[in-house]
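Purpose: get a first structural picture of the assembly so the mutagenesis plan has something to point at.
Setup: two entries, given in the order below. No constraints added.
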Amino acid sequence: MSFLMQVLSTGVLQGMIYALIGIGLYLVFSVMRIVNFAHGFFVLIGMYGLLWAAPDTFTGFVLITIVVALAAAAFGWVVERAIIEPTLNKPGHAQLVITIALGIVMQYTAQILFPEPYQTIQNPWPFESFNIGGVTISSARLAAGVISLLLTLGVAWLVYKTRFGSLMRACSQSIDGAIHMGINYPRIYRSTFALGAGLAAIAGALLIPFQPVSPHFGLDLTVKAFIVVVIGGTASIWGTMVAGLLLGLAEALGSVFLSGSMTTAVIYTLFLLVILLRPQGLIARKAVKI
Amino acid sequence: MIASTVKNLFSSKASTVNTVIVIVAIVLAFVYPLMVSAPLISVGFVALLYAMRNFTWNIAGGFAGALSLAHVGAFGIGAFSVAVLTWGQGWNIWISIVVGIVISAVLGAAVSVVMSRFGVNAFFFAVGTLAVSMALAGIAASWSVTGAINGLQNRTSEEGLLHLQWFTDPKPLYYVALIMLVLIVIATAYMMKRTRLGRSLPFIREDPQMAASMGINVTRNLAWTMAISMGLTAIPGSLMVQYTHFASFDSVLTLAVGISMVMGAFIGGATTLAGPIVAGILIAALEEWLRSFQVTGSNISSITQIVYALLVILLIRFGAAGLVPLWNGLLQRLFREGSRYSSSTLEAAETEPSSPRKEDASA
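Result (structure tokens, whole complex):
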């Protein structure tokens, strides 16, 4: 029983991080109608940023996380301005290919800068681990899960309760309508992209204490974020959150019964099945065009 | 028909230049192994494989606009069918190659039919096909038949065309790859020009809904195209492992393979026949050129990937459709020909209408 609780709690905590990563992709997808293949690589910015700075105190960890998140957001802003905005009106899959290319550039730059794979940092949190009723949770995991949850709720508040959020939702519902209302939509787009990149970098900073990083990890995370967004549907942020938790749980349970690579195979197959059996949940919003 | 085709090849100055280039390139490709040393022949072989897999990806990805990452799976299936059946079970390699083609083609058709439930949406197509490849990679990594994480090693010892294996001389394998590439290109060019299926593909790419309303069976045509494209992608997979003598999930079933196919097609020009081939050969040459500097092996592939990706970003950012369309535009400007649509040997389908680039009003 306590073994099951252990697996479930690990899954839930991991799922909250997936939800946080998925939220960034979801925002960019729903506001800008862009599938950002480079999203997972923004997580890598957070992970490698912390790895490079290697903070040895808790204050240092917090400060560097903030700096790295701001840097990632600034990078996202520049990327949006420099290469995504000019392709918004292009036909076909221009944005898709351009974000794949961006991801490749980031992955191999990381490969050259940090050739040593699977590094991690020492636990920055001021406590080691908790033991509640036979369930042991490392402090890094617990902190990552809780902070992810808080940030996700914060983003939901931003989207549904603030003026900036209503501008984002306006762009999401009808970009033509938003333009006619005089909304400065390029600014909303840039801010949204920067927000997504910043959130991804924070997720990376939360992951690095217990998740060894390697450059190809970015693609894995991109795909997982896709799974979260597609399964969650495009209707609201809450769907993305639930999908993140589901993915975390599925992974944790799968790792108990199957080998690591088989778990991946099963998750992708399940993902395909969900796409097949509930396509209406996926393309609820018809406006998402090629 | 042949006479008119030949006449078309020389119908304008620009197409005459291109025809001459193509003929010279083919002749050069055939005499190349006779002029250089053995290591360079292997470089040429790898270049041909890059060109071949870019080209076969482009049949579905460029002509029909189906941004597929399931081709990674096809490449891996081609590789593993040789590894499992020929190296493990002792089947003749040509049978193994055909088995790989058939499995990949069936997978391609199935994936396409399944994905058409999304109404041919590029985003979901890319994500769904990516999931297919990742699932296959996960299976290959944990299944003992495919060598699990250790992969499979070629321990066969027969030589000759029947076994597609030569231990000392790299020339025969080079020629096999070259002849296969030429055959694939000729067959594809014929399909794109002369068959209803081929001629419907640019239409489907530009506007699937319009194509459907004009009576084109979009689902069926896409399924056929994906089957052809993925079936042919198994061939470079088979040849690659026959050259490296090693197949494992992280050498042939990685997304890097798929991304290099996508990027290669886009760099060369995804709407053209020649583009993916040009890009494949350029990339192999770039890798070889980088090798002449004092950089470590892993950094070479990293740098080529970065150059690759930056090229794609620049091309798309500045509104170019690829190297070959740029070249054709240059030729037309040189010879002052009015229409971009004059029949050119290199263009299988019309290039996209050159709409003026729309810049954002507020930019």
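Chain B touches chain A through 56 residues (CB under 8 Å).
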